[in-house]
Amino acid sequence: MMKNLLLSSVVLLLFTSGCTLGHYGRLKKAPTSSTIPKSIFGDNFNSFLFKANITLYKKEISGLLVAKQMGPHDYRIIFTTELGMKLFDFEFKDSTFTVHYSVPQFALPALLQTIQQDIEILLMNNINGKKMESLYYCDEGGIRCLDIQKEKLEKMYNYYFTDRTTQQIVKIEHSKKRTKKVLFSLNDYKDHFPINIIIQHFNIKLKIELNLLKK
């Protein structure tokens, strides 16, 4: 009985490790030096309006999310109900994060930190001047190739996947070693901006979906 349990544990560990290593082991080093990926929102913009849906465990909160640039490296992110009641109001300026307002549902420190991290990755506000490793991946036959910039953080990594043909960022992965923690999917580009953005967490039951209404 004990022997079978031990064997099962070893098999499970091997299976889990195989899943954890995943596709990062298939990425190849690019022959050219790394370039900083182009910001999704652009260097200067007025505002973007999204239809937003946040799913936290089994609770769903829907509303409107506004991303507004106040100045260089200064962004205001406001989430309201469709009737206009404010749910949160955050400001990102350089490396400073300010909570101007939050309803109790979003005021939990761990959740605030998670949403802060998600928005900072999406805004790509702090990547200028950073050294990145250049990688690439091509599917069988080389029909589709992705150029990847790997950003090293203190304990984590950000992988920016750019479609070589369209030169558009199609996804961002926030990972620890070779374990994917958060996936940012950028879909249905129009006028150089994704109409649909999905942020899916794998270590907690959190999903954020943004659908562009106006920019």
Protein described:
- This protein is an alpha+beta fold and 215 residues long.
- The chain has a single domain, classed as outer membrane lipoprotein receptor (LolB), chain A, CATH 2.50.20.
- 16% of the residues lie in helices and 50% in strands.
- It is built from two helices and 13 strands, in the order H-E-E-E-E-E-E-H-E-E-E-E-E-E-E.
- The chain is globular.
Residues in helix, %:
10-25%
How large, in whole angstroms, is the Cα Rg? 19 Å
Inertia-based shape: globular
Indicate how many domains the architecture comprises: 1
Q: What portion of the residues fall into strands of 2 or more residues? A: over 45%
Q: What is the annotated CATH architecture?
A: Clam
Q: How are the strands of the biggest sheet laid out side by side?
A: 1-7-8-9-10-11-12-13-2-3-4-5-6
CATH class placement? Mainly Beta
Number of strands: 13
Order of helices and strands: HEEEEEEHEEEEEEE
Low-confidence stretches: 1-21
Largest sheet: 13 strands, antiparallel
Class of secondary structure makeup: alpha+beta
Distance between the termini: 63 Å
State the helix count.
Answer: 2
What's the mean pLDDT score?
Answer: 85
And the CATH topology?
outer membrane lipoprotein receptor (LolB), chain A
What is the secondary structure topology, with strand pairs?
Elements: H1 2-21, E1 28-29, E2 47-56, E3 59-71, E4 74-80, E5 86-93, E6 96-102, H2 109-123, E7 132-138, E8 145-152, E9 157-163, E10 169-176, E11 179-190, E12 193-201, E13 206-214
Antiparallel strand pairs: 1-7, 2-3, 2-13, 3-4, 4-5, 5-6, 7-8, 8-9, 9-10, 10-11, 11-12, 12-13
